[in-house]
Amino acid sequence: MTIIYKIISATEWRAAEAEGLFHGAPIDLADGYIHFSAAEQVEETAAKHFAGKADLLLVSIDADRLGDALKWEVSRGGALFPHLYAPLSLDAVTRVAPLPLGADGRHDFRGLL
């Protein structure tokens, strides 16, 4: 099983749970796909795009369940990032966990990856 990650506000995720599908955060909708990170990328993603933001969740997804709509594409620094060109079905989600913000303003991933 390949696990990929989505960092999202608790409010956005609760709306997805109510609908049963996640169509994407505003940045995803603007770009035309849902942005994810691999385990070795997610901490840098948090630091770059979510620095100092509280009330976030780390959603773990089984990439193997996303089919051909998941593409690994070159992004930041030439690395391949997972992008989903379809809504995320919540049955591919393996875990939803709070992503705590440390006193230093960085998110604490201990025990989450």
UniProtKB/TrEMBL annotation:
SUPFAM superfamilies: ADP-ribosylation. It comes from the Bacteria. InterPro entries: DUF952. PANTHER family: BLR1139 PROTEIN, DUF952 DOMAIN-CONTAINING PROTEIN. This is Dihydroorotate dehydrogenase. It comes from Methylocystis iwaonis.
